[in-house]
Amino acid sequence: MTDADYDLLLRDVTALTAEPARPVIEDAVIGIRNGRLALLSTASEAPRSLTSARTLTLPGRVVTPGFVNVHTHAILTMCRGMAEDMGFAPAYTPGVPKGSDVRPDEARALARLGALEALLFGSTLINDTYVHADVTVDAMAEIGGRVVTCGRIHDVDFTVVADGRWEHDAKIGDETLNAALALAERWQGKADGRIGVQLSPHAPDTCSEPLLRRVADASRRYALRVNTHLAQSRIEVERVQARSRCHPAELLEATGLLDKRLIAAHCVFLDDTNVARVGRAGITVAHVPKGNATGGMMAATPRLRRAGARLALGTDNMHADMIEVMRWALAIARLQEGRVTDDWKPETALAMATREGAIAMGLADELGSLAVGKKADLVVIDFRRPHLTPCTSALGNLVHVAQGRDVEIVIVDGRVVVEGGRATLVDEDEIRREATTRRARCGRSPARASPGAGYFRARRMASQILPGARGRSRWPTPSGASASTTALAMAGVEPIVADSPMPFTPSVVRGDSVRV
Questions:
Q1: What's the whole-number average pLDDT of the chain?
Q2: What would you measure as the largest C-alpha separation in the chain, in angstroms?
Q3: What confidence category does residue 83 fall into, taking pLDDT thresholds of 50, 70 and 90?
């Protein structure tokens, strides 16, 4: 550390702050110190003499807060270009690679590719959920962004869902919930606070009522937020209606999950009663406008907002361009309204991609806007390109015209992790080669993830939780034995029943803040 005023200084930029009180700062100067924003002003307002360890003078660039992608599955880069035209999510679709088809080494390589893509497109935080989260989370975080993760929690046997069979097994539920809680103990707050964990019951149709109640209890007991899919398909609604005699939103309400700490992706198949229900509960809808539209669907976002739901943005899978998603979100809302309204403007879309996402993740005090004191997570977009010229409105050009590939620099915690459109901490070419090779092998090896694979995965995780620790380690286990619990016990990890205090304190965010 030098004696300079700032570690990094950005000059001659236009700042889109996502702060309602001062949304645009022309000819801005941005100073970063100790990983936080320490100066944000116009050049004329800034002190005359400023020193910094490094200064970037960036005329023709626009700076935004880092994008907060509240719903994605990085591993599903393996399905891009094929699943979009098959009608629905890969887990439910015959002929598409499934999570149960992916080995840990394949998952790790594909997740790195997905996380790299997201970071290059300006997502400084991704809320990512899929299989093998215990071996993908550090691989994603090494690229330089923030990763909030969870393995999907379910008690349906996913190996047969695409065949139209919903077979629930309590042992699978034990295994997946236990693994999620072990993940939280091992990874919460790691990588200098850039890693977090949520609980992610996959969907109301793939989780039984008892399992959903256990997730709700674990969320409250251990101060972990929850993300899920909700009303994403007619199949889900029909299955839950047949099984539980209610709509999926009613089921989440009855099991204690429908509240302000829930991020629910899609929310497409909601009638007026259930729009009012989720709005009243104050949930966050993880709006996936492009992914939904590709399948011929759209969420009633204007009605959901008026009912009281928060709207944040997610890319889901196949493509991680949050700028494009902003544009789709705005256009789809205007299609439903039938006109341009004051409720749906470019600033609305930017807020959904930044500030609203940070609130949904419980990180509003740290992320989501450019404000002195917040973490220095920034995106620098090159507006010198022909399609962004002339720049009559930086915000209008960003939302209506820009693309993720226009991102030039990404800063996370004050560290430059993308410069010149290239990642600075990893070898992009190696990540692409490895993902391509591993993807080609998916489905060829018999060593597949399956409901029973959790026993061995749990033993591996147990050996990693507290390496070198004396005696028996302890980790939280909801009541009810499972194969994973047995494996952990054999490995020297003592389960803790659900009514015991949580043996760790969430450190990514404070208090009760810490999806699939």
A1: 87
A2: 70
A3: confident
Looking at residue 283, the DSSP 8-state letter turns out to be: P
Report the C-alpha gap between 132 and 107 in whole angstroms: 7
Which H helix or E strand runs over 161? none
318, 121 Cβ separation under 8 angstroms: no
Residue 515, Cβ neighbours under 10 Å: how many? 31
Q: How far apart are CA 432 and CA 252, in angstroms?
A: 39
What is d(CA 403, CA 386) in angstroms, rounded to the nearest whole number? 12
Residue of 488, 480, 489, 408 lying closest to 62 (CA atoms): 408
Residue with tokens 């009855």: 254
Q: What is the DSSP letter of 153?
A: B
pLDDT value at residue 291: 92
Q: Are 147 and 194 in contact (CB under 8 A)?
A: yes
CB of 194 within 8 A of CB of 145? yes
3-state secondary structure (DSSP) of residue 7 = strand
Strands 67-72 and 123-130: parallel
- The token pair at 61 is 């660039």
Q: Report pTM.
A: 0.86
Q: Would you say residue 88 has pLDDT above 70?
A: no
> Based on C-alpha coordinates, what's the Rg of the chain?
22
The CA-to-CA distance between both ends of the chain, in Å, stands at 42
User: Residue 408 burial (CB < 10 Å; 0-12/13-18/19+)?
Assistant: buried
3-class secondary-structure state, position 415? strand
Contact 150, 183 (CB under 8 A): yes
What tokens does 480 get? 């009810």
**For 315-359, how does the pLDDT look when each residue is reduced to its tens digit (9 = 90+)?**
998 789 999 999 999 999 999 999 999 999 999 999 999 999 999
Q: Contact at 8 Å (CB) between 358 and 126?
A: no
In angstroms, how far is CA 201 from the centroid of its own chain? Answer: 14
Exposure of 509 in the CB half-sphere (CA atoms within 13 A): 24
User: b or e along 435-472 (b: 16 or more beta carbons within 10 Å of the residue's beta carbon)?
Assistant: beebbeebeeeeeebebebbbebbbebbeebbeeeeee
SS3 286: strand
Q: Which distant-in-sequence residues (6+ apart) come within 8 Å of 486 by Cβ?
A: 455
Cα–Cα distance for residue pair 319/157, rounded to 1 Å: 27
Q: How far is residue 16's CA from residue 33's CA, in Å, rounded to a whole number?
A: 20
Mean pLDDT score, 426-448: 79
